[in-house]
Predict the structure of Phosphatase phospho1.
Amino acid sequence: MSCCFTPAHPSAAEIEPAAHYRRRRGNMAEAPPPGDRRFLIFFDFDETLVDETSDDMVVQAAPGGVLPGWLKDTYRPSRYNEYMQRVLAYLAEQGVTEPTIRSIVEQIPACPGIPALLRFLQSRPPRDFEVVCVSDANTFFIESWLTRAGFRPLFLRVFSNPAQFDRDGQLQMRPFHSHDCQRCPSNMCKAVVVREYIARRVRERGGRPYQRVFYVGDGANDFCPSLTLSPRDIAFPRRDFPMHRLIQEMAEAQPGKFRASVVSWASGEDVINTLRKVVEERG
Ligand SMILES: [Mg+2]
Ligand SMILES: [Zn+2]
């Protein structure tokens, strides 16, 4: 598989809180300190951090809580991003406002054990874990949820489809990038995001690689990035969700092709237990 990385709106899509950004930015110019053995952990958003698909939750705001049939009929496979743009336009036409959408998103429940997992990561010394979100939802939903939950400062980067409300009160969302991966939806290949991010950060770290990379996800579009992981790394697929099934299918059909270790999870506590061991092993 080859992918070409063409960021459509990199500055809008990679959002960092200003103070956090400046502080980190200052460190980036220098090589990491001796003994820096940082881990990198990626999180998907829908059905991973939150226990729902945020796009589906927002549809609650439509009149009667459902979308009209003519709108649903415009969905085309692998063109989901464009479909969602039409859904957001429809909601705006129906008078659904920013505070309503924000409040629905903020109230989406976290997945079991995810708040504990994020608190565990927060409790570690700052150079232990670099935490990144990569999601095919959109920046407005993710920023709203993470901020409300109090976990926004934990995330060094959020990679998602850039979205903001325009003057007419419509949430305008754009595709994250274009790529040529056949496996992924046209607006986002998370494998490209993960590879480009690691390459850039290793350069910024003076060539020093991460000790290990972790990827926590659930969906079919989390399978592609998990294929980029090395044998030292760990894929955390949500148990019995599509990412997990795809990994199992590959393990049966092509033994040895999937290189990373696999730890399935039903609760964030399962991930914590593995990370605790990994940190202890490192000493
Ligand atoms: Mg997901
Ligand atoms: Zn892909």
Remarks:
- The domain at 6-52+110-282 is CATH 3.40.50.1000 (Rossmann fold).
- Strands lie at 6-7, 39-43, 129-138, 155-161, 163-165, 171-173, 177-178, 212-217, 234-237, 261-262.
